[in-house]
Amino acid sequence: AQSVTQLGSHVSVSEGALVLLRCNYSSSVPPYLFWYVQYPNQGLQLLLKYTSAATLVKGINGFEAEFKKSETSFHLTKPSAHMSDAAEYFCAVSDRGNKLVFGAGTILRVKS
Amino acid sequence: SAVISQKPSRDICQRGTSLTIQCQVDSQVTMMFWYRQQPGQSLTLIATANQGSEATYESGFVIDKFPISRPNLTFSTLTVSNMSPEDSSIYLCSVGGGSKDTGELFFGEGSRLTVL
Q1: Nearest CA to B64 among B87, B45, B81, B84?
Q2: Of A32, A78, A102, B13, which one is least surrounded by beta carbons within 10 A?
Q3: B30 touches chain A (CB under 8 A)
Q4: Closest CA to B92 of B4, B15, B27
């Protein structure tokens, strides 16, 4: 069975600092991996996805993630945090069946 | 990507009552998915709804509690029956997007239910 572990339920960074949100997955087959963002009182928005093409994936709003098979990781990064990045971020894994398994989520706080 | 509309966006309900959530998609889709997000927690898949067949429920979810309808390729409803405070959650409708094989989902804004 697939599973996703997000390290750190809360991450706090200063505006302009590097954002690093960690995600490790477990899957018996080569996975598809996703990062979603949820702003307060909104649904989930797809940030980026890995589907076995390039291991470094670029998404919206300046975010990117790198798939590392040896580490079973798919960490999300952004070089410079902006106040508008404050939200909850979810990592998810799929075995190609459209059935996504989500991590517990990481709340990102950006300090001015 | 699909545009997904959910109604109601939020509601406050009394214990023991039932509420039906509607999900409308702007394009025809084969599968629709209903997720629950309990306060402070992640998303859990309730069921997968295919047009013209019974919904497929995940472990821990049953049809009597969460009946689902899927009358056509653009619409689905989820009913939360005989509600208790533990049912207070965000209920999200989602559909597959992009290439058939890539697996990503697109979500509605969610329906925020508070059960008193």
Answers
A1: B81
A2: B13
A3: no
A4: B4
Contact B101 A45 (CB under 8 A): no
pLDDT in tens, A10-45: 999 999 999 999 999 987 777 889 999 999 888 899
pLDDT tens by residue, B30-59: 889 999 999 888 899 999 998 888 899 999
Considering CB atoms only, which of A46, A51, A97 is closest to B106?
A46
What lies within 8 Å, CB to CB, of B84 at 6+ separation is B15, B16, B115
Collect all residues of chain B within an 8 Å Cβ-Cβ radius of residue A32: 102-104
Interface probe, candidates B42, B46, B92, B109, chain A, greatest A C-beta count within 10 A: B42
By the 8 A CB rule, do B108 and B26 touch? no
Which of chain A's residues have a Cβ under 8 Å away from the Cβ of B4?
Answer: 43
On the CB side of A46, how many CA atoms lie within 13 Å of its CA? 23
DSSP H helices, chain A, are none
Which amino acid type is present at position A53? A
